[in-house]
Amino acid sequence: MLLGWIKLHRQLLDNWIMTEPEALSVWVRFLLEANHDTKKKMLNGSLVEIKRGQLVFGLEAFSARSGVSIAKLRRYIKLLENDGMINRLKTAKYSIITIASFDSYQSLDRQTTSKEQSNDKQIATPKECKNEKNVKEVIDHLNLVVNAKYKHTTKSNSQNISARLDDGYSVDELKLVINSKANEWLNDKTMAQYLRPSTLFQASKFQGYLTSAKPVSITNKPKGFTQ
């Protein structure tokens, strides 16, 4: 029997998964079943290290435990992978699923109260101030292009943008990716949901998006494209 508890951040309320109850149940089960500490396990005769934030996954066994059909599991796992919430390493017999940012949300540190946060507030550096301004510019551009209302003050929206800026990418390059992917996805009901900061600026995907990005001509805008 697994013991202990997990944390659920309120940012989850803003995530697409809240509109998919079964997907939410899969996500919570992943969090519950993920290793709290790194351990070694015998799998098909081999000793495998399962790290903190990882779990061994098999479609049939997980479907039996969760009550979610295999077909739906495949769909939800693909969505979670595309959104950068999990990484999946496949083998012939099983998969190792890694929960992204597991330590960021499941650490044992107690929550900081608003009063403590106020007392601990540090003076922002010039770089932090510049990043905040640039993050806001990128978010504002995304909102304009896809007719959304993302807030630059929300960590889940700003962290990937700030990280890409720290990697040396320019604001114009981030905007180019927004324009390019909006042109590809905005009128596609399946893909339009990925026109959000957590997907567009994900570390593992951004360079590929930028490499394939092409300037969008005035006459080639999708319906609703408002650049």
Structural class: mainly alpha
Write down the Rg.
20 Å
* Fraction of residues in β-strands: 5-15%
What is the CATH topology classification name of the largest domain? Arc Repressor Mutant, subunit A
Q: Poorly predicted ranges (pLDDT <50, ≥5 residues)?
A: 110-127
CATH superfamily of the largest domain: Winged helix-like DNA-binding domain superfamily/Winged helix DNA-binding domain
CATH class wording of the largest domain: Mainly Alpha
Number of strands: 5
As laid out across the biggest beta sheet, the strand order is: 3-5-4
What is the percent of helical residues?
Answer: 40-55%
Give the number of helices. Answer: 10
Q: Give the overall form.
A: elongated
| Element pattern in H and E | HEEEHHEEHHHHHHH
Ends distance: 54 Å
The description of the largest β-sheet is: 3 strands, antiparallel
Task: Tell me the CATH architecture of the largest domain.
Answer: Orthogonal Bundle
- What is the typical, i.e. mean, pLDDT? 83
Q: How many structural domains in the coordinates?
A: 2
Features of this protein?
single chain; 227 residues; mainly alpha; Arc Repressor Mutant, subunit A; 2 domains; 3-stranded antiparallel sheet; two-stranded antiparallel sheet; 10 helices; 5 strands; 48% helix; 11% strand; elongated
Task: Please characterize this protein's 3D structure.
This protein is mainly alpha-helical and 227 residues long. It has helices at 21-33, 59-66, 70-82, 102-106, 114-120, 126-146, 155-166, 171-185, 197-200, 203-212, and strands at residues 39-43, 46-50, 54-57, 86-90, 95-99. It has a three-stranded antiparallel β-sheet. A two-stranded antiparallel sheet has the order 1-2. Helix 6 (126-146) crosses helix 7.
